[in-house]
Write a structure and sequence with these properties.
single chain; about 80 residues; mainly beta; 6-stranded mixed sheet; 6 strands; globular
Length: about 80
């Protein structure tokens, strides 16, 4: 059972959250878009499920290339990741 349903958008300005994938768990942010992907679901703080359609999503994300680009564009959705 997923905590949050996520849709990956094509363009940065369509996202609620810009996400940067960090290499190590201790680099993951405090709800600031820096995500660490675990090998097993039971290791994760949040379980996400990728949906096929935007209207199925709780949260729209865009993956960024640089850590300093990560962050919220739509802070009204921020509660989903606490």
């Amino acid at each position: 059972q997923a905590d949050v349903k996520v849709f990956v958008v094509d363009y940065e300005n369509q996202a609620d959250l810009k996400v940067f994938k960090v290499k190590y768990a201790n680099q993951a942010g405090k709800n600031n878009g820096k995500w660490f992907f675990t090998e097993y679901e039971n290791q994760a703080k949040k379980s996400i499920y990728y949906v096929d359609y935007e209207n199925q999503a709780d949260l729209k994300i865009y993956f960024v290339d640089y850590e300093n680009q990560a962050g919220w564009l739509n802070k009204s959705k921020q509660h989903l990741m606490y």
